# Entry
Amino acid sequence: MTGIVNLPLVPLRESDTESSEMTSQLLFGECVEVIKTRDQQFLLRNLADNYVGWVDKKMIRILKKHEEQRLTELNVHCVCTPLIEGQNEETGEKLLLPGGSKLHFQAGTELKVNNKTFIFDPIDSTEQVDKTGESLVQLAKQYLNAPYLWGGKSIMGIDCSGLVQVVFSMCGIQLPRDSSQQVELGKVIDFLNEVKPGDLAFFENGEGEIVHVGILLNSHQIIHASGCVKIETIDSQGIISEFTDKYSHNLRVVKRIF
# Structure
C-alpha cells in the first residue's frame, strides 16, 4: 500500500508504541510505502529516503490506485522557507506547513487536504532556488536558533542530519536521513582551505563512528544543530564551542555533494 502524509509533521518511531523513541519525522506531502500493519500502527518506508519506522495509522492517508496516478500528474513544490501558512477562504481555518513539505497543487496555489481547500500565497520552492553552495548556506541560515530535537526535521525542532537533509531537499537534492549514511556520498575535500560554501563536515565519536554533520560556510565557520542551530568556528581538529572555547566535535572528513 502507498500512503501520503496529510499532517504538517508526523513522528516516525523506533517501535510500534506511542512512547517509543522518535527516530525521524515525515513532512507534509511525503509518500510512504506500508510494509506491515500491527494493531493501530503502520511499519512504513519513506519513499523519499527509504527510512523505515512505525507510525500511528491515523496519521497516514492510504491512496487508491487512481489517486497514486493523479499525484504523478500534479505540480509538486518543495517548500523552501521554514514555515508557510495556508487558509481556507470559507472558514478561515489555517494550515501551517514546515519547510521541506511537498505541495501537490490542484491548481495555482490551491491545496486540497482532507476535503478542505487551502489557499497559499506564492511560495519559494525548489524551482526558484539556485543549485549553488551559497544558496544552500542561505537556506540553512533560515533555521538559525531552531532548537535541537533528536529525529526532528522542522523549525520547531531539528537534528544535525535533519537540517542537512531538509536544506538539500530545498535545492532539489535528496540525501539519506542519517549522518552515517550521508557521509557515504560526495567527493572528499582534503583541506579546509579548499572548501566551498555548502560542503559538509562530518564528525566522529571516540569509537570512530560518524555521529554529527554540519554545513560549511567557509574554511572556518560551520552551521549545525547542537543545542540549537548555530554558527560556530571550525578548524582541522573540529568545532570550537562558542560557550566553552573547547572542541565539542572531532572532525573526521569533509565532503562535497555538488
In short: Residues 137 and 198 are 6 Å apart (CA to CA). The longest helix spans residues 160-170. The chain has a mean pLDDT of 94.
